[in-house]
Amino acid sequence: MKLKPLYALMLPAVLLSSCSKDFIDRPSLSGTTTGNYYNNADEVRAATSTLYSGLPWRNYESRAQDAIGDVMGGNMFTYTDVEYLNFTVSSASDRIGAAWGAFYKIIGYSNVMIKTFEEKKAAGGGAAYLDPAIAECHFIRGMLYFYIARTWGAAPIITDPGATALSGDFNIPRYLQKDVLRFALEELKMAETGLPDSDVPGRVTKSAARALMAKMYLYSKDYANAKAKAEEVINSGKYRLVDDYTGMFTKMSMNNNAEAIFSIQHQFAQDPWGTGNIKNPDRGAGALRTAEADAWEMYVPSLDMLKEYEFGDLRRKWSVMEHGWTNLNWKPQRANAPKYNAFMASGFKYDTLQPTADGGSLSPTRGNLVKYFAGPGKSFGGEPVLGQNSGNNVVLLRYADVLLIYAEAVLAGGASTADAKALDALNQVRRRAGLTAKTSITNDDILHERRVEFAFEGDYWYDIQRQGFAKAKAIIEKQNRGTVTGATYLTNFTEDKMFLPIPAGEIVQDPELGKDPVPYYN
């Protein structure tokens, strides 16, 4: 959604309302006013539930997250988003337009809710339920500006789109990246103050705000504060690593589990589009396409990513399918396909020798993705799937990240560390993966651990980016971005590729976005 239409959408004093108590229901766009609505916690929480729903996040999490975080990061190969594979992204790219629109749309929702709830409180509304809701909005706004600052660098900051629309002045400049990051951090500090210590699974809390602050401090190389915030989360005891790593991304029963800190909330439904998780077909092996589940393997693991796993790392089979990978519970069948049906009758075997028409798999890298692929459908031994839709959440922040943030913050840019607490944090992650413990760690050790732990979760590009241009260039140029038929190494990575271009349509509407950034703070 473009900025100007977004302002117009945000003009009403009240954006969202609903009588539904379901956490992830989408509140309706109604004409209620602060005088007759938001009179209790249920009404307020029904509105803020929209900020977690897959509906407004859809255009980011569906493909833009993959293209930016993992294709650009060198973790995924694709024939579709080639411009992200070879760093020739233009301002006309669909993916950056989709991500930009999703982020500013949700920011717009947050802006209007903050204003509405503050007006309601000023008119005598209950602070006990309005203040936590305002804090939720600050958390979401802070999170999104963090994403924006990492994706585009300098960018607009919008807090009152209604006032902007009424003024008629849509010439919003780009603000310096350091100011966008500062604004995001201030939002999270307000969230930390106003959020409760605990809430129902899926809702953000003080610990969630601290975890995201730790990640933001680490990005900015403020190691002391990154360590302090991560340590607060660790000491809170509110999160833990779960045993079923694959299930975090593929099972509805594990939505909002003990490791998940912030997740986009999905329902198992097709309508409205985006209610369900629609990553399934883009990641699923074509051999698992059935009458229930679409699978067209748009994104596959890169050869460079497959080479990154240490021998014995269980995350390899938990994250990717390769020759010999099996799931004997999956028994997909197809109409009028006797050879396929016979091959699958005893359970799914990922086989690169079997003809593809008869159940074999032959991706360009001879691998497919496990993360966020729920399977061939419930009738065939998998999770419930409705065509392109499954019901599992998309996890944007989890406890493993906090542990690795802590370890890196202790290292603090040094050559190595043998600090006992840092080692314990990193080795908890390695221990789950079946790996031996480290006795000292370097920055490269942590980057490796982050890459394999969060592969295909849309984060690795940002880990590369925060290393600075020289190291980012060295990392990118060492990656094999080709296929089994031919290696491809890039030589065109230049400093201007560290951030994505502002979508062309936005600059047409607001020419200030095409100019040099300016300070947001005096």
UniProtKB/TrEMBL annotation:
Keywords: Cell outer membrane, Membrane, Signal. The keyword Nucleus does not apply. It comes from the Bacteria. PROSITE patterns: PROKAR_LIPOPROTEIN. Gene3D superfamilies: 1.25.40.390. InterPro entries: SusD-like_N, SusD_RagB_dom, TPR-like_helical_dom_sf. Residues 83-218 form the SusD-like N-terminal domain. GO terms for cellular component: cell outer membrane. Belongs to the SusD family. This is RagB/SusD family nutrient uptake outer membrane protein.
